[in-house]
């Protein structure tokens, strides 16, 4: 969990340093950015107070080429944005969205491809309140490839 003291926004779902595997075979970091519009049935945003997100992997497919082996990973990031409404009584509202991704991780040539797994971690995120109806959210994701049964043997 991260807290932006300047904007008083709480971020839930960010992995702690101790949650990452200690000796990955390979990894890939990338960003996913989105511009989100508040659904028409919801009121305008006064202030975003919390963003909750989770990364989900749908599929990890090994691809072998004449030059190397790689894993093609596709998945999505679900997020819920909680905010106070731009109304006198400032009620709290939420809306959600989902962002898809497809990324490739190049693998070292000396690993056994039949005994690997891919895990996903949310490294960081930040939301920018652009207008009363629009936010821009940026998430940093890390995909980590490890051995299935044991690590660093």
From TrEMBL:
| SipL SPOCS domain mapped to chain residues | 44-125
Taxonomy, superkingdom: Bacteria
InterPro entries documented for this protein: SipL_SPOCS_dom
User: One Pfam match, by short name?
Assistant: SipL
Record's protein name = SipL SPOCS domain-containing protein
| Classification lineage | Bacteria, Bacillati, Bacillota, Bacilli, Bacillales
